[in-house]
Design brief:
It is a single chain. The chain folds into two domains: 2-118 and 323-335, Nucleotidyltransferase, domain 5 (2-Layer Sandwich), CATH 3.30.420.40; 165-319, Hexokinase, domain 1 (3-Layer(aba) Sandwich). Helix 8 (248-272) runs parallel beside helix 11 (296-302). It has helices spanning 42-57, 90-97, 107-114, 175-186, 201-214, 221-228, 234-243, 248-272, 282-285, 289-292, 296-302, 324-335, and strands spanning 2-9, 13-22, 25-35, 65-70, 78-80, 87-89, 101-106, 123-127, 137-142, 146-154, 157-163, 278-281, 316-319. The two termini are 15 Å apart. Helices cover 38% and strands 24% of the residues. It has a six-stranded mixed sheet with strand order 8-13-12-9-10-11, with helices on both faces. The model has no long low-confidence stretch (mean pLDDT 95). The protein has twelve helices and 13 strands. It is α/β, with parallel strands linked by helices and 336 residues long.
Length: 336
């Protein structure tokens, strides 16, 4: 048996998990969540975690390998976190934590590993066709931002790659989306608009404000009051307004968001031809699954002119397991 330490490191929270690796697979034995900003570095969090875990399981824990998935660019096992004053280095972490091998990977690379540990109940298929195990796998996920990545089969294994595809240019496809692009330029004063500005939680908020500015659909007083609250999560409020309350402005916002999301997923699929599967991750898709199932996402995904038929054989799965990144970190740690 090998003891592993897996982590999902974000600007807001850090989740750590102790995992046993056995011949039967990976078995999580203890997990804890911490507020990242309460600590000056990852090391004291990991030390506190291991001390707490030892008390809970009744024995000292000495991980042999560790992998930390980080919401930020990682190069040569080093990362400077965007929203924290942390500078992480794999070699320093090995020394200070007494772990033989530590790997730092991008959070979307972790999802790439995690898809290989998903169970049937962890996914919902929007296009359930036979996967080609020799073909690439694509990953896209809207949350705070828009992440994209891919997996390439290699012999009996595979290689996982993160990307910055979410920062590619937003490409409007109809009159309303051209007006949205103009809104970003003229009202929000952006010289360049990435697809992440539209397909993300902040994108939902921007679309809502854009549609409200057109004056064609009135804003309900209830939604207006919720949005006006301090630290309001506008994306979440609008999503709930559309799915739970049937609010018209919220529903139109979500429809435009889903159109753009499906179109970008289709763009990624055209570039990779991921007949091994396209997995939709992130914090939004699972929460709006009933709306995704209505068909607008798939219509936008497949509306690619004369090459549309090539997308009919791409398996498309929504990831329902919110800890797929943590799962992937454990899988990658086990492979070190």
């Amino acid at each position: 048996m090998t003891l592993l330490l897996a982590g999902d490191i974000g600007g807001t929270k850090t989740i750590l998990q102790a995992v046993e690796s056995t011949e039967k697979g990976l078995n999580p034995i203890f997990e804890a969540k911490y507020l990242s900003q309460d600590f000056a570095d990852l090391v004291p969090i990991a030390q506190q975690f291991l001390a707490t875990a030892a008390k809970e399981v009744g024995q000292e824990l000495h991980p042999e390998k560790a992998c930390f998935a980080i919401a930020g660019p990682v190069a040569d096992d080093r990362c400077t976190l965007t929203n924290l004053s942390w500078v992480l280095d794999g070699r320093r972490l090995e020394k200070e934590l007494g772990i033989a091998k530590v790997s730092l990977i991008n959070d979307f690379a972790a999802i790439g590993y995690g898809v290989f540990g998903l169970k049937p109940e962890d996914i919902h298929s929007l296009q359930d066709v036979q996967a080609d195990k020799t073909a690439p796998i694509a990953i896209i996920g809207a949350g705070t931002g828009l992440g994209e990545g891919f997996v390439i089969p290699q012999g009996t294994g595979y290689r996982v790659f993160a990307s910055e595809g979410g920062h590619a240019d937003f490409a409007p496809r109809n009159e309303l989306e051209f007006k949205l692009l103009k809104y970003f330029h003229e009202v929000r004063k952006l010289q360049r608009v990435s697809v992440e500005r539209v397909v993300s939680g902040m994108g939902i908020a921007a679309i809502y404000e854009f549609l409200k500015s057109l004056g064609e659909i009135p804003e309900s007083s209830e939604i207006e009051e919720e949005i006006a609250k301090e630290d309001a999560d506008i994306g979440a409020i609008v999503s709930r307004g559309a799915t739970e309350k049937g609010d018209r402005l919220c529903k139109e916002t979500l429809d435009l968001f889903i159109d753009a999301y499906g179109a970008e997923a289709g763009n990624l699929a055209l570039k990779l031809l991921p007949y091994g599967g396209l997995y939709i991750a992130g914090g939004i898709a699972a929460k709006i699954l009933p709306v995704l199932r209505e068909g607008k996402f798939m219509t936008a995904f497949k509306t690619k002119g004369r090459v549309s038929p090539v997308l009919n054989n791409v398996p498309i799965h929504v990831i329902l397991n919110p800890q797929v990144g943590l799962l992937g970190a454990g899988i990658h740690a086990n492979q070190l």
